[in-house]
Amino acid sequence: MPPRHQASGRFGLGLALASCTMLMWGVLPLILQGVLRDLDPVTLTWFRFSFATVVLGIVLRSRAALPRLSGLGSRRLGLLLLATVFLAGNYIAYLLGLDRTNAPSAQVLIQAAPLLLALGGIFVFHERFAPLQWLGLGVLLLGMGGFFADQLRSLVEGIDRYVSGVIWIGVASVTWAVYGLAQKQLLLWLPSQGIMLCIFAGGALIFAGGAAPLKLAGLDGVGWLLLVLSSGNTLLAYGTFAAALEHWEASRVSAVIALTPLATLAFTAAAAIVWPQHVDARVVTPGALIASAVVVVGSLLVALGGRRARPDQVSAR
């Protein structure tokens, strides 16, 4: 194949894979909201971790790539435990926040997570922000503040519940950033998929005591479909994300991923037309769209305003 055609093919494949990842992450909050109507957050989180452990474990075993922990030492095992506890905290805090707000709010506000990870890199790893990245930080915070104010104005009741949900999303952002910093260190000794298998297994153990597996028997066909979709979404999105990085520059991938909040707003508007009894379209206001666009611009500036991002610098979910 001529080089020009080959480059065009890689561009198209990279764009398709990155777009697939963005769309899967964009629809995930709506799927989770559907599952939360039948399951409590602890049981849902336990099932997602267990599902991911089994599926990823089978894949890694078939490749003879199961992680070996015997030679890590106590310090590195402690770092793995830290990453496990904080990602588990991220999962449950995000669900608690999503249950009290709505899908667009959760998706816009969770953009603070990669921002906090980037700021953590400054203090922990002594990385530097370029001027455009500091500008992006200000734009991102402005957009998030505008979105929060718009949602408060559109609420006629349940303001206290919404504010508590925003706080939980904030907790989810902080815990994800701590997890990300810990994982970045662990990548020096373990491959990313091996790390995730250990974290998924640890998370399943953490929530096993508070889960109510008998509630799964009460799910109907739609409930089971949403549960499996929510559990497989992260693994599939991670797979397409990793594949996109193989065919495209990380900076281009991160630019597509930054569009996720807008995708969630679009999915919410579409779902409100199809299932008006389950999805409230009032959250998709002109102000919310403008504020979300500002958040996307800020995310792009933070992600791309400095040096070209390496694959391990692009945020995952």
Largest sheet: none
Q: Rough shape?
A: globular
What is the chain-wise order of helices and strands? HHHHHHHHHHHH
Low-confidence segments, given as residue ranges, are: 308-317
| Helix run count | 12
Derived from helix and strand composition plus strand pairing, the structural class reads mainly alpha
Distance between the termini: 35 Å
Overall pLDDT metric: 87
Query: How many strand segments?
Result: 0
- Radius of gyration, Cα only, in angstroms? 19 Å
What is the number of independent domains?
A: 1
Q: Report the sheet-strand fraction.
A: under 5%
How would you describe the overall organization of this protein?
The chain is mostly helical and 317 residues long. It has one domain (3-313). It has twelve helices and no strands. It has helices at residues 3-36, 41-62, 74-100, 103-109, 112-124, 131-154, 159-186, 192-208, 221-247, 250-257, 260-274, 286-304. α1 (3-36) runs antiparallel to α9 and α3 (74-100) packs antiparallel against α7. The longest helix has 34 residues, at 3-36. It starts with a helix and ends in a 13-residue tail after the last helix. 42% of the residues are buried. Residues 308-317 have low confidence and may be disordered.
Short account of what is shown:
With 317 residues, the chain is mostly helical. It is built from twelve helices and no strands. It has one domain (3-313).
